[in-house]
Amino acid sequence: MKSLPPHHPSLATTYINIGLVYNDKGEYDKALEYYEKALEIEMKSLPQYHPSLATTYSNIGLVYNDKGEYDKALEYYEKALEVDMKSLPQYHPSLATTYSNIGLVYNDKGEYDKALEYYEKALEIDMKSLPSYHPSLATTYSNIGLVYNDKGEYDKALEYYEKALEIEMKSLPPHHPSLATTYINIGLVYNDKGEYDKALE
């Protein structure tokens, strides 16, 4: 740290990496402390709409979401979205990720229609920017399935989980954890529907 000026972008990267470790450990306030140091440096050393700013805003949004502070999470994800929309092409996968992050917060808040609105924007980008069997596409289908399950629309949930499963079976190794998660999600929907034999399958 002595060899770099106090607002050098590499220092911001180091702070972000430290923040990631604290977030993974569940030490959210420490994570925020380091992300905010990184953000301060980036705001002084980078152009206003640099993609790195969007990433840092998203990291901060993630911490607030993990803390259950959904409105603060949305505030930072919306800042990330503003940067993404001004700095990235219309169908860039990072834009889809930001839409998905916002969708996740709305789902956690129980605002399912808003969650679907953002997940569907993410899906549109994923379908235009990724190969048809890309695992990120499966993740977006799973996210949409989760919202429909939370809404009690079980057949719609199954429709999206099965799309996710089809992609995962073609794009992932047979014992990948994402496959197990999707099978569990499908089983939970059948359980919620009261179809216990199907759930056990």
TrEMBL record:
It holds the Pfam family TPR_1. GO terms for cellular component: kinesin complex; microtubule. The keyword Zinc-finger does not apply. It is found in: Cytoplasm, Cytoskeleton. InterPro entries: Sel1-like, TPR-like_helical_dom_sf, TPR_rpt. Keywords: Cytoplasm, Cytoskeleton, Microtubule, Motor protein, Repeat, TPR repeat. It comes from the Eukaryota. TPR repeats lie at residues 12-45, 54-87, 96-129, 138-171. Oligomeric complex composed of two heavy chains and two light chains. PANTHER family: AAA+ ATPASE DOMAIN-CONTAINING PROTEIN (PTHR45641:SF1), TETRATRICOPEPTIDE REPEAT PROTEIN (AFU_ORTHOLOGUE AFUA_6G03870) (PTHR45641). Kinesin is a microtubule-associated force-producing protein that play a role in organelle transport. Belongs to the kinesin light chain family. This is Kinesin light chain. It comes from Rotaria sordida.
